[in-house]
Amino acid sequence: MERNLLKTLKDNMNSCSKGHRLITEYVINHSDKAAFMTASKLGRAVGVSESTVVRFAISLGFKGYPEFQKSLQEQVKANLTAVQRMELSDDRIGGENVLENVMTADIDRIKETLSEISTNDFNQAVEAIANAHSIYIIGNRSASALASFAEYYLSLMFSYVKRVKPSSTSEMLEQVMKIDERDVIIGFSFPRYSTQTRIALQYARDKKAKVVAFTDSDNSPLVPFADYLLVSGSDMASFVDSLVAPLSLLNALIVAVSAKKKDMISKNFATLEAIWEEYNAYDTREQ
After folding, report:
1. What mean pLDDT is reported for the chain?
2. Measured between alpha carbons, how far apart are the two ends of the chain, in Å?
3. Tens of pLDDT along 123-167?
4. Please, is 188 exposed, middle or buried when counting C-beta atoms within 10 Å of its C-beta (0-12, 13-18, 19+)?
5. Nearest to 26 by CA among 12, 38, 42
């Protein structure tokens, strides 16, 4: 499907029927709201039937309205401001059942990720990480939580794991300056996408390193530089980025890598357990 859906709508404006033109104008002028409306609600907003909205989506080459809506969401949510997110959350989440609505949405994103993930890319990413000379990790802004999680566990397993810290672009590139074809870089970026993460992955790709990209869609700016693309459903609850599905996918990746290096990792953890016990890392008092 067209990557720039809004441009496609503008180009087709003059050839539309009256009903389709009304939908087109509304989507173009209120894309941030339209992207999260049901077909029925969008129809009411512009004064046409729900079936007209469905036929409109199909006329653009989509299988149905859900596919059209997903494409529009992917384009729109990358540019939504925090204020716009908060405004949209009132309609999407509601004020009374926030707990149920947010957690149900997270469950749906995990199921969606499991059904759509490329097992080939996942398995090849596992092999690349397990056999890498050095592992670099980058994730800025809200994605820094995923980068920290990856850094913590991979550092327990491998000798050289480097977290690329946020800084100026030139200083950031200094941190990955020595990356080469023996290495792997793992990048995390979700809407609104980090420019620095994209630049880091592009630099690593130019240096022939293997690139593992965690992102939300095939339209992500990380895609052109990824050797292994790990797409997971992200969502937004108010101004908060929901990264439950990406974290679940990352958890699976780390477990799969550890299975590849079981003997080595077992020795590492035997050493770590002795250190943790000697220096009282954990509270072992009886409760």
Report:
1. 86
2. 58
3. 999 999 999 999 999 999 889 999 999 999 999 889 899 999 988
4. buried
5. 42
Reported pTM:
0.73
* pLDDT at position 252: 96
Tokens 């809506």, residue?
A: 69
Paired tokens of 137: 């990790």
DSSP string, the chain: --S-HHHHHHHHGGGS-HHHHHHHHHHHHTHHHHTT--HHHHHHHHT--HHHHHHHHHHTT-SSHHHHHHHHHHHHHTT--HHHHHHHHHHHT-SS-HHHHHHHHHHHHHHHHHHH--HHHHHHHHHHHHT-S-EEEEE-GGGHHHHHHHHHHHHHH-S-EEE-----HHHHHHHTTT--TT-EEEEE--SSPPHHHHHHHHHHHHTT-EEEEEES-TTSTTGGG-SEEEE---EEETTEEE-HHHHHHHHHHHHHHHHHTHHHHHHHHHHHHHHHHHTT-S-----
The sign of the CA dihedral 204, 208, 209, 214 is positive
Beta bridge partners of 181: none
- Tokens of residue 105, six digits: 């949405």
- Per residue in 228-257, pLDDT tens? 999 997 765 444 667 899 999 999 999 999
